[in-house]
C-alpha cells in the first residue's frame, strides 16, 4: 500500500514508519521539520497543498497532535484553542481534504490518547481534544464507507517515561512497538469506527 504518514519524525511516527516499511508498504513521510515532505497540518491550506503534492494514496496515518498541559485554573482560551487546532482540527483536515485522495477501500488512522477516558491533573485540554477526535472518528465512519477510519489511543509510551511519566501516575506504560501494531491493525484490517487501545 502507499501510505501517507503525518508526524513521521516524532517518537511515535518513527516507530510507525519503521513497522510499516518492514511490512513492505510504500510510506510517504510528512512533518513540519523533516520527512519526505514538510508541511504544517495545523494549517488547512498546507493540508490541501500536501495532498496536491502527494496525489493518490491507500491510507493516511497521523501520529501528530500537540496539546498544552497546565493546571485547569491556568489554562487560557488560547491554550484550549491550541489543543483543538493542534490535535483535532489538524486531523479533521487530513480526513476532510483526504477523502478524494484516498482509494475507495482506503483508510484513515488518527491519534488520540488515554486522557479521553482516564483524566489526569493538568490534562483537561488534552482530554477535551482526545475525546473530540474519538467522537469524530465514530461519526465519520458511518458516512465515508467504503473508506474506513479508526483511532489509536495509547497511554504513555514506555520509551517516554523519563519525560512524561510524571503526567501519568499509576498508569501502565505501553511500548511503542505495541502502538505501531495498532496502526497496522487499522491500516491492514477491515474494521472502521474503532478506537484501538494498545
TrEMBL record:
Sorted UniProt keywords: Oxidoreductase
Lineage: Bacteria, Bacillati, Actinomycetota, Actinomycetes, Pseudonocardiales
Family matches, as CDD domains: Lin1944_like_SDR_c
NCBIfam families per UniProt: PRK07578.1
InterPro entries: NAD(P)-bd_dom_sf (IPR036291), SDR_DHRS6-like (IPR051122), SDR_fam (IPR002347)
MF (Gene Ontology): oxidoreductase activity
Family: Belongs to the short-chain dehydrogenases/reductases (SDR) family.
Protein name: Short chain dehydrogenase
Domain of life (superkingdom): Bacteria
Matches recorded under SUPFAM superfamilies: NAD(P)-binding Rossmann-fold domains
UniProt entry tagged with the keyword ATP-binding: no
Pfam families: adh_short_C2
Signal sequence, renumbered to the chain: none
Organism: Lentzea guizhouensis
